[in-house]
Automatic annotation (TrEMBL):
Residues of the Cupin type-2 domain: 87-157
Protein name: Cupin domain-containing protein
Pfam families: Cupin_2
InterPro entries: Cupin_2, RmlC-like_jellyroll, RmlC_Cupin_sf
Species of provenance: Paraburkholderia dipogonis
Signal peptide feature range: 1-21
Alphabetical keyword list: Signal
Length: 172
């Protein structure tokens, strides 16, 4: 099992920054939960409150979801691709702003309710055991836990490039 090293495509052109980001993520290990918003802010120098990713009132002040990568394995029958599984925890009123994924994603709700919206579709509330699919590079406008009291959790399965490349991309 290879630990996930999160990188952004623009970092791939900057080997020193890529090495630093990879070393940091390896040191933290895949069991260290990371806020996608905090990760983008730390690696990219982006202020999450300045994101055009959300038109939700108070989105920047809402708690962020956290991601815990469970595994990343090369697919022997699909050269150049890997499958990564991750648990995404949403605290009460937890929020994830607009983003894309470089590969296909399937999510299943394990706990609570998740409200999610892909570009071109309406917001949908998903309950325990319900799933949704995101095509590669589709704009995921937001995902949130609409419950102010109870947490929510999803299992996300990504099919993307081998070597556990980036799983989350900026919305642009």
């Amino acid at each position: 099992m290879n630990p996930l090293t999160l990188t952004l495509p623009r970092l791939a052109r900057k080997p020193a920054m890529l090495a630093l980001a990879t070393t940091t993520m390896l040191a933290l290990g895949p069991s260290a939960p990371r806020s996608a918003i905090d990760w983008f802010a730390g690696i990219c120098g982006v202020d999450p409150s300045m994101s055009n990713a959300s038109t939700h009132t108070g989105a920047a002040s809402r708690p962020a979801s956290t991601v815990k990568v469970l595994s990343c394995e090369a697919l022997p029958n699909v050269p150049g691709k890997s499958v990564t599984t991750a648990i995404v925890d949403f605290p009460p009123l937890g929020f994830t702003p607009a983003h894309r994924h470089p590969g296909s994603v399937t999510a299943v709700v394990l706990e609570g309710t998740i409200r999610s919206q892909l570009q071109g579709g309406p917001p949908v509330d998903y309950a325990v055991a319900q799933t949704w699919f995101e095509p590669p590079r589709a704009l995921h406008l937001f995902a949130e836990n609409p419950d102010a009291v109870h947490p929510a959790k999803i299992l996300a399965t990504f099919i993307a490039d081998t070597n556990c490349g980036p799983l989350v991309l900026p919305p642009d």
